[in-house]
Amino acid sequence: MTLQLRQICFVAKELEPVIQDLTAILGINRCYVDDGVGKFGLENTLMPIGCNFLEVVAPIEEGTAGGRYLERRQGDGGYMVITQADSNETRKTVRQNAADNGVRVAFESERGDWNLCQLHPGDLKAAFLEVETDADNDFNGLWHPVGGTGWEDKVKQDVTVDYRGVELQSSDPVGLAELWGKVIGAPVTRDGASLNVDLNNVTLRFVEEADGRGAGLGGLDIAVADREHILRTAREHGCYVNDDRVDICGVRWYLLDA
After folding, report:
1. Which of 103, 138, 238, 239 could join 123 in a cystine, given CB atoms 3.0 to 4.6 angstroms apart?
2. Local confidence band at 194 (pLDDT 50, 70, 90 cut-offs)
């Protein structure tokens, strides 16, 4: 039973300024726009980070779930942790784990070989967790949210290489870690002050909320090949915090040398 982080989704009040910050600072490219999110009152853009993806959505209508999330978290920030399972059986197991722990399904879709389940952020107390499967479940290849294939030539890893971790914050990080661990079906381990749950390619890290924004997806660990580019460009865009961190779209980006 394996889950791979394939995509992180942010929500922003305005889409284009955030995309400009992300592409410039992280040295990544745009690869896809999904018009289908319009049915949720959103617009979006996606960018590859290695063989995985970063999505930003922004409301284009009043009364959207994304807009409510912006209000609750007092601005732009992390929104969804999107995973690919190694089988449809794994997806079903996670769904059942969620039900057993009082976590509702927010959205579900079965389209032939492409199946997905989004678990409710209110019940998960920090972010959406989405689990997807398809006919191949190739963790380095086809990914339906970016149209399947055709994104490969947009991958650029001379600055930013890949994800390494996701930081989820809460006033009760122990309870949050235990809940996510039960839903994912993985043990909770401790590393200093943080509690961790491992996916196949990243670590979910659960920490005490300290920024006054409440529970949520507060940070990402990324492997970087050109730290100096990131720091220099972050200064130009007003996103520099220190030599190990930049803040973009209300999210803390922790820089780890690749």
Report:
1. 103
2. confident
Residue at token pair 């200093």: 192
Instruction: Give pTM, 2 decimals.
Output: 0.97
Describe the strand order of the beta sheet including 114-119 as a list of residue ranges: 42-49, 52-59, 3-11, 77-85, 128-133, 114-119, 105-111
- The 8-class DSSP code of residue 208 comes to E
Q: Where are the domains of the chain?
A: 3-154, 160-257
Band the pLDDT of 47: cuts 50, 70, 90: very high
Sign of the Cα torsion 234, 237, 241, 242 reads: positive
Q: How confident is the model at residue 65 (pLDDT cuts 50, 70, 90)?
A: confident
Same fold, 3-154 and 160-257: yes
Give DSSP secondary structure letters for 123-178: HHTS-EEEEEE-SS--TTS-BGGGTBSS-GGG---SSEEEEEEEEEEES-HHHHHH
Structure tokens at 40: 């949720």
pLDDT the model gives residue 207: 96
Contact between residue 152 and residue 19 where contact means Cβ atoms under 8 Å apart: no
Out of 3.10.180.10, 3.40.50.10490, 1.10.260.40, 3.40.50.300, select the CATH number for domain 3-154.
Answer: 3.10.180.10
